[in-house]
Amino acid sequence: MTRFRGAACTLFCLGAADVCAEGAPIFEIGVGTAWNSNLFFTPQDEVSTASAVADLVTGYSIERETSRYDLTADGHYQPYEDDALSPSSAVGIGLAMLKEREYGSSRFSVSYRNESSLIDAFDNDGRFVDDERLETLRAGMQHSFELGEANTLVIHTGVERVGYYDTPNDILRNDYDFTNGAMEWEHQAGERMTWGVGVVATRYTSEGDVVENEVVTYGPIVSLRREVDDTFRYSAEISLRKSDTDAELFGFIERNDGGTEYYGSLEMQKDLERGRWSLLLLRQVQPLSNARQQIRDQATVSFGYELSERSSLTVGLTALEDQSNNDSLDDARRAFASDVSYVRELSETMSLAVGYRYGLQESDPNAVEARANTVWLSLRRVTGHAG
């Protein structure tokens, strides 16, 4: 476990056994400004506007000899220069716990977030939800059991509930639920390599007056993690899953679909003398707020370089494609984004960052394109963080 050192650490005792724990505050605050050439990311009627941005993360971290607890709260506020646009905002709270045991370890996390609803999004009743609040509740748990010096059994499960809150009418409408789980046996084949085999499953459900949909995937999974040397490492996993889709439209039109799809990921990281590059290839299920679950193919390349002891440059490229898991629907979406950011450390706790992003999106069936340019500047102060 990584020992956390933050500003103003305190030492106090917990429990009847008088077990001492080390505590530290978590505090990050950022202010800045941004300009976006196409705020709603639409192919026409583009809205170009500047905005101010304020972010805050605060909380407390407690670390004992064999456990750690992080409690955090965060907020975001972004008013726009255009008076016709309402400010976007978000608040959230989260709890993460880690417990080292005699024969393994346990991790648990839970979080709640309330934010401005997704721009240009429709719920599963076909209603535009730009003026509502998006509520997300997530929880995850992982247990690892050491079966010997080289074998470990890992069990993971996660749940997510997403809903929209109609503030004027005081109505909370559930939009979708997403559950995922996996059980994998891992074998350590040497000091630098671990491979595993197991099973994985997901379940997506969305209920509305217009559309009800349920998508279940399940199948075997194989994984590999390896450190080639002290500077290069990679991890990979692949799963072949059966997919079952049951949809109902307007209460009487049923549409069922099934098949087999492969999912997986490949992640590489290389440390350089003054930087690092990374590669991520990913295929996964993508739950959406329109009563559909899609398959996402994604490729991301990132390169970071230390210009000096106090400054760094990061460049990133991402390409993705979302395709409906239902073969009868032709609603693919392709997107590309490039990012460039420069960070200058003004002190041990203060940093200045400036960045640029270009985004391109194309949607079927008519291959409609949308483009956006974003420039941002931020000043951030960090005196501790959750690790």
Overview features:
387 residues, 19 strands, 0% helix, disordered N terminus
Q: How would you portray this structure in words?
A:
It is globular and about 65 Å long. It is mainly beta and 387 residues long. Mean pLDDT is 86; it is low at 1-20. A hairpin with a 4-residue loop joins strand 8 (151-166) and strand 9. The relative contact order is 0.12. The protein has strands spanning 10-14, 19-36, 49-63, 67-78, 88-101, 104-116, 133-146, 151-166, 171-188, 193-207, 211-227, 232-249, 253-272, 275-287, 293-306, 311-324, 333-345, 350-363, 368-384. The chain has no helices and 19 strands. It has an 18-stranded antiparallel barrel.
Helix content: under 10%
Q: How large a portion of the residues is in β-strands, by DSSP E?
A: over 45%
Helix vs. strand class: mainly beta
Number of strands: 19
Shape: globular
* Regions with little confidence, pLDDT below 50 for 5+ residues: 1-20
The radius of gyration over CA amounts to 23 Å
Mean of pLDDT: 86
Structure annotation, total helices: 0
Largest β-sheet summary = 18 strands, antiparallel, barrel
User: What's the end-to-end separation, in Å?
Assistant: 10 Å
User: What is the N-to-C succession of helices and strands?
Assistant: EEEEEEEEEEEEEEEEEEE
